[in-house]
């Protein structure tokens, strides 16, 4: 639990201090089915807090019915055959997946391992230096 807290804290500090990975187009796709007991358990144990977690900020959740995987708009490495399956996606490409729901004690550590596979963020664009002006008694001039 302490490792998870440290990881989330590091992610939040990075995001707030200049957006280390805030510019990623990552998302976590949850392939589920309403009749899936483990899907309902994930929604009860993790679902309400996930959007507010550091992981949820880096990779927002999108739910897709398992039968609709061909219409999900992502390139899967292999078909999803069971629910729940969590697929981490970056720019519509699968980065990795968690097959099944391992329970609340194991979900976040496994997701943290997947998040480490994301490519590093692009460096922020450099802005041209600001021009300053000098105002004198006879008017302002650009330097």
What does this structure look like?
With 143 residues, this protein is α+β, with helices and mostly antiparallel strands. The protein has a single domain, classed as Glutaredoxin. Helices cover 29% and strands 23% of the residues. The strands form two sheets. Strands 2-1-3-4 form a four-stranded mixed β-sheet, covered by helices on one side. A two-stranded antiparallel ribbon has the order 5-6. A hairpin with a 2-residue loop joins β5 and β6 (139-142). It is elongated.
Topology (elements, then pairings):
Layout: H1 2-16, E1 26-32, H2 37-45, H3 54-58, E2 61-65, E3 85-90, E4 93-99, H4 104-115, E5 133-136, E6 139-142
The CATH architecture name reads 3-Layer(aba) Sandwich
- Name the CATH class: Alpha Beta
CATH superfamily: Glutaredoxin
Order of helices and strands: HEHHEEEHEE
Percent in helix: 25-40%
Number of helices: 4
Major sheet summary line: 4 strands, mixed
Give me the Rg, rounded.
Answer: 21 Å
Brief summary of the model shown:
This protein has 143 residues and is an alpha+beta fold. It has four helices and six strands. The strands form two sheets. It has a four-stranded mixed sheet, covered by helices on one side. A two-stranded antiparallel ribbon has the order 5-6.
Throw out a few tags for this protein.
143 residues, alpha+beta, Glutaredoxin, four-stranded mixed β-sheet, two-stranded antiparallel sheet, 4 helices, elongated, disordered N terminus
């Amino acid at each position: 639990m302490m490792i998870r807290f440290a990881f989330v804290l590091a992610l939040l500090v990075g995001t707030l201090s200049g957006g280390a990975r805030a510019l990623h187009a990552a998302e976590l796709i949850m392939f589920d089915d309403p009749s899936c007991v483990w899907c309902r358990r994930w929604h009860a144990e993790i679902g309400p807090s996930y959007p507010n977690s550091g992981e949820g900020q880096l990779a927002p959740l999108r739910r897709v019915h398992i039968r609709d995987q061909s219409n999900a708009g992502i390139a899967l490495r292999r078909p999803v055959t069971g629910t729940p399956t969590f697929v981490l996606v970056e720019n519509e490409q699968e980065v990795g997946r968690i097959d099944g729901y391992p329970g609340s004690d194991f979900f976040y550590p496994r997701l943290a391992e997947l998040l480490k596979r994301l490519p590093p963020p692009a460096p922020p664009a450099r802005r041209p230096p600001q021009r300053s002006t000098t105002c004198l008694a006879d008017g302002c001039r650009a330097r």
